[in-house]
Amino acid sequence: MSQRKRIWGWFFYDWACQPFYTLMLTFFFAPYFATVAADYFIASGMETEVSKAKAQTMWSICLSASGLFIGISAPILGAIADTSGRRMPWIYVFSVMLILGAMGTWVGVPDGSNLTLMLYFFALGYIGTEFALIFTNAQLTTLGNQGEIGKISGISQERSIDVMITRLRQKIELNPKNPKYLQTIRGSGYVLWIE
Questions:
Q1: I need a surface site. Which of 63, 66, 106, 133 has the fewest CB within 10 A?
Q2: Cβ-count burial of 137 within 10 angstroms (0-12 exposed, 13-18 middle, 19+ buried)?
Q3: 3-class SS of residue 184
């Protein structure tokens, strides 16, 4: 496989894993879980504030336990990733964990009857994502020399910024292809001109 294909493969894998953090950890699943859990506890007779606190406690225990497991295991897996020549089997295993965990959170029902199962699936996906990241980042050293690694690993973030700028221009510019307000300064970045 060519070096260019390997770099793009790394880029697309890294890019594809990011929605787990955005959607599951931050914007959608975490608030969904907190709401469903609080409603479940309220329906079981708990006071509103106590039920909200209990829901947040369940979520924080899940994150803490997952984070502790990742923190203890990551150095060991990092050493394996750095010394073993075969990283792809590990990436496959952890990708399956990520996929099963993300899919498993769909068992969550609005009545909150399976809160613990929802958390187990979330933790499986979260751990799978973090462990896959260890092995994909270990591949960076095989994709370029020391001076190129930063550029390679930054490709996904650069493209994300470009997409956001393009969408923003579509909203604020009369002619997004010839922007007047949000301009690109080659070698420097973007400038917002306000009249």
A1: 106
A2: middle
A3: strand
Q: Please provide the CATH number assigned to the domain covering 148-195.
A: 1.10.10.10
CB 130 within 8 A of CB 70: yes
56-82 mean pLDDT: 92
Single out the residue of 7, 56, 9 nearest to residue 33, CA to CA. Answer: 56
What pTM did the predictor assign?
A: 0.73
Write out pLDDT tens, residues 78-129.
888 878 777 888 889 999 999 999 999 998 888 999 999 999 999 999 999 9
Cβ(152)–Cβ(158) below 8 Å:
no
Sequence spans of domains, the chain = 3-143, 148-195
Q: Return d(Cα 15, Cα 132) in angstroms, integer.
A: 13
Q: Given phi > 0 = left and psi -120 to 50 = alpha, else beta, which region is 179?
A: beta
